[in-house]
Amino acid sequence: RLSHQTEYRVDWERTDAWWGDERCVPLDDPDSNYRLVEESLLSKVGPLASVHPMRSDLPDAADLYDRLVRSAPPIDLIHLGLGPDGHTASLFPDSEALTAPATRFVVSNVDPLGHNPHPRLTFTFAGIAHCRTAVVTVAGASKTEALHRVLDGDLTAPAAHLTNDDLIWLVDSEAMGSRSPR
Predict the structure, then answer these.
(1) Sorting pLDDT into bands at 50, 70 and 90, what band is 155?
(2) Which residues are within 8 A (CB) of 173 and not within 5 positions of it... i.e. 6 or more apart?
(3) 2-176: CATH number
(4) Residue-wise over 29-54: b if at least 16 C-beta within 10 A, else e?
(5) Which of 91, 133, 151, 162 is the most buried if burial means most Cβ atoms within 10 Å?
(6) 69 pLDDT exceeds 90?
(7) C-alpha span between 100 and 119 (Å, rounded)
(8) pLDDT tens, position by position, 45-59
(9) How far, in Å, CA of 164 to CA of 47, rounded?
(10) What is the pTM of this model?
């Protein structure tokens, strides 16, 4: 809807689009984050300054995207979600990406518990922190337990490690459950 509301007009021709994570599938695959964003937003707003999909089909894809992100100016906004296990981007509980060095902004990762299919490319915590603003959208009752763990500072939930100075949580009432917002 935002793409059509004039009071929220974005100058898309001055906007770059980056991805915080991507499944290692073709860009036109139904599981592709790129495809989701292309169909729900990019195809509706007109041309952008540049679009930088994570090309998981390329050799050394994580290294290439890492170099691309680190060579660009800081990203203004990263939009994240929260998984029922507390993951954000593709930073899964107990996964190797949680301990990526601070010099890496993008790495390859898999869910060691197998709850989330497909190998992934993902921003690291350092990559997310390099963004000026992080917005985390949490929707649905399936996220309530994970959200409460994050709000309680349970560091086994990867999203509890987000450190952006400008960190905005957009939470619906189903995800909040019976807990009052702070």
Answers:
(1) very high
(2) none
(3) 3.40.50.1360
(4) eeebbbbebbeeebeeeeebeeebbb
(5) 91
(6) yes
(7) 16
(8) 888 889 999 998 888
(9) 29
(10) 0.91
